């Protein structure tokens, strides 16, 4: 290791070291910062430069927090110099604009909150800041996390760095595109029906949705409270393990957050897959699955077998019903969660309301986009007197059946593996006129949310030049197993290290 | 036709927890608008509710007091409707699975008869804020200090038969929640308020008639007047051949009438569903046991004990147990006095209650403490002062002149009990009134009072009256028949 002396550091040497900072994983960056190969401030400025260069084409960011980033970076540099600082000191990340960030606009991708500056930090924001992460900006997303393409944002669509005519997936599309284009080293996301895993799959990233209750939801703007879970989009399973380790843990401010110790995920990465029993659910290989994607999933399963894992056919018969169950439960909760946006206390308010009803109808009519309104109406309908039993109760029963299916499978296997998304990224606008087709993007991801299970998506190859994701689902609180299984795959492959051209 | 009135009450009791039911904000009344509302109470994006255990303990306490079933598992649900003082667009309440089911409360009617009122359920919920329509021109003010205050909604079965019964029930309930220290019972500030469901049916029928719900009655007087108005109104409708409409009505105290607010057709569909932000409320037997150990003696038990152990009449015992503070005050006086329960009772219900009433004070803040009153009564018992002097001393104590002994010393009020001294006084008076003595001895017995008065006048009222009587009698002898 070369010892650094700031005085003997020529501009050329420095330039050589810093020009490719973005090609490093979060784990590597953290190591380099500790070795003081470059400073957190240099790294933050590098990210800001790349955003200035690339984001006009990609539209990943709703807000770039330049001043805050430089301030946090300098604080990280001081901490590192003093031999202190959190485990992630100086690492540049972005937050999905669904996480309340004190003093920073937190829009949730909606006109409704375009003027909303959060007065407090979400627990996730607080914990990653405490770990030393430097916040570069807040990322674009489908409005209120409702969407699978990031085309439902008030701030316009996000473009996929692998092909800018394509969607990056959603709803955490801004986070996905920002990490895929290496504008930041990793980003947070939220996953209600696949909103981390599907965009991770479509942009070649490692995306993890932890067990429901593993990460606090406090400060994360609610879409469907019983399904929402915070997670990350990162370059590698190792990076994801470090970030989730910093985010997870009990929070007394969230009653649904589970009080269970957080394992040292990064320390357990090398567990390997020898003897791992992998369940392959036949329901995940139906006619909707793209042939190219299917071939890559089968290749990945073959690799796992080569590494000592066993694959076992399993059946999850209720899982094909997850989409209808989800599109009752999620809109029902959303219709209630979004009732607070009424123009009274904060956020958008229509101009010159003539009375209370006018205030409500125009504020909500003008403040929400079409997909949000569609779901509020659906949710209001399914909760209405006379329909509640037929929809909401029935959907809850389905949800139980789906959870039971997984519980049964996990008596025989350690993880369940399948595709994350039926197809690679599709063209912008291709599905915007047909909500049902759009909803079917999430057929393989939704079940994990309904059952509250942890799941990870990792890149497993390219179809026509576009990334594809392999999904690994585990029993509750088996994040460690998911990280080590993903890590074992990533040691043997380099799909996760491929970068889209133009963003090298 | 004869009509029978059927009334059921839904009473909202604000629980006396220091912080709100789902946030850490304070619950005190009267703060400047919107200063006691946290981001959670304001329904900010991203915030989540966390249940306050103090509110749960209070609900359990109430459940134990009325013999309700305490649900081992109950569920918070969202009641969805839009209103500017409802920040989240829904109220967190309990719907299908409330924390308490059943139980009953015994009430005493005006004629002394006692009657048991069955309860349907009681559930925990959060209060909304307040809309202020009066003080702002062309717009409404919203004060969210009250938003998130814990409420226990106590629902009775439709078993009350008159406005008087409804008031008796309300009063008993108020006494009970105050005894339990779970609600201050302050109706004016809205800590205890009630919705009354009123219907009529032909006497003898066992089918319920169509009801109207009168909202937000915040005094006993309004409960009585609103129900009586409503009974008359419905009787007029029914006897005129009409039908009562199921609706929500408001009582206008100024005009003493109820007015329609909204009918069933316009009623909200509240779209209740379990709140996914809160886990089901699990109450384990250990919690119930720990609350049971903290239970105070309840009014009925106290009343019986006062009758049995203190030998008080049912009426006196009832009056003294009407509030826990009054009962505690009375018991302190008895304890410090070491007996003389009847004397203590008479003073508490008489002079003390009178003084409190006159100055509009609560017994908890009485200017004369129970210990001070006991000190005064001791001086009566040991004959330092007479009962009549005691009243004067009490007034002086009330005026802040100090303890009984201090007042007696300062005013030189101690009684003359020296028989020799009194005898001398008697002799002096008798000698000075020969004419009256003659008349008395001639048979004018009523003049005895004149001699007593002269003796008392001569000593400035300080001589012990019993001794004066006895010695005068001995001196004067019996009047001639």
What descriptive keywords fit this protein?
heterodimer; A: about 500 residues; alpha/beta; Amidase signature (AS) enzymes; 2 domains; 11-stranded mixed β-sheet; about 10% strand; globular; B: about 475 residues; alpha+beta; Arc Repressor Mutant, subunit A; 3 domains; 10-stranded mixed β-sheet; 3-stranded antiparallel β-sheet; 15 helices; about 40% helix; elongated
Descriptive report:
The complex is a heterodimer of chains A (504) and B (481). Chain A has 504 residues and is of the alpha/beta class. Chain A has two domains: 22-318 and 403-497, Amidase signature (AS) enzymes (Alpha-Beta Complex), CATH 3.90.1300.10; 320-400, no CATH class. Chain A has helices at 11-18, 26-34, 40-58, 66-81, 123-130, 173-180, 197-203, 237-247, 291-306, 322-337, 356-367, 370-383, 389-409, 435-439, 446-451, 479-492; strands at 61-64, 92-96, 134-139, 186-190, 206-209, 230-234, 277-281, 310-314, 415-419, 455-463, 466-473. Chain A has an eleven-stranded mixed sheet with strand order 1-3-2-4-6-5-10-11-9-7-8, sandwiched between helices. In chain A, helix 3 (40-58) packs antiparallel against helix 4 and helix 8 packs antiparallel against helix 16. Mean pLDDT of chain A is 95; it is low at 1-8. Chain B contains 15 helices and 17 strands. The longest helix of chain B is centred in the middle third of the chain and has 20 residues, at 220-239. The N and C termini of chain B lie far apart (69 Å). Chain A binds chain B through residues 99-100, 106, 108, 113, 116, 118-120, 122, 217-222, 224-226, 252-256, 332-333, 335-336, 338-340, 342, 344-346, 356, 360, 380, 383-385, 388, 392, and chain B through 39, 42-51, 78, 80, 82, 84, 87-90, 142, 269, 271-273, 276-279.
